[in-house]
Amino acid sequence: MVRRNRTVDRSVALFLLGAMLFLPPLLPVFNRPERIAGIPVLYLYIFAAWCLLIALAAVIARAIPHEEADSSAAAPPLATPAPPASDGDRNA
Questions:
Q1: Of 20-29, 62-71, 74-83, which one has max mean pLDDT?
Q2: What is the full DSSP assignment across 2-24?
Q3: So what's the pLDDT on residue 6?
Q4: pLDDT tens sequence across 9-22
Q5: What DSSP designation does 37 have?
Q6: 88: burial class by Cβ within 10 Å (0-12, 13-18, 19+)?
Q7: What is the mean pLDDT of the chain?
Q8: Torsion angle, CA of 40/42/44/50, rounded to 10 degrees?
Q9: 84: buried, middle or exposed (CB in 10 Å: 19+, 13-18, 0-12)?
């Protein structure tokens, strides 16, 4: 249970980090006329922040125990199909 709470806390922290990285107070810092390898600095910042968030999400996802993932994948179906009608039911 403690591990799950840590994972949830890290997921919330990742969301807040992503929100901070892409909100306007930080974006104008990188909105400059300079270019690195012909690419505007703002575009490089957005791409790097996006890659960082994906990498951190992968690290958090690996922290989820395999037992929890296996138990949710093997959940029983919600409804069972009805059995096919027998020949006696068709003639009645």
A1: 20-29
A2: HHHHHHHHHHHHHHHHHHHHHST
A3: 87
A4: 999 999 999 999 99
A5: T
A6: exposed
A7: 83
A8: -160
A9: exposed
Structure tokens at 43: 């575009």
* Residue 56, both tokens: 């951190």
Residue 53 has pLDDT above 80, yes or no: yes
Q: Which of 11, 39, 42 is nearest to 26 (CA)?
A: 42
Going by C-beta distance under 8 Å and a sequence separation of 6 or more, which residues neighbour residue 10?
Answer: 60, 63
Q: Phi and psi (nearest 5°) for 20? A: -65, -40
Residues found in the chain: 92
Is the pLDDT at 66 greater than 80, yes or no? no
Specify the amino acid at residue 8: V
Q: Which two tokens stand for residue 85?
A: 């009608």
Non-local (6+) Cβ contacts of 59 within 8 A are: none
The DSSP element (H or E) to which 92 belongs, if any, is none
State how far the Cα of 60 lies from the Cα of 13, in Å rounded to an integer. 11
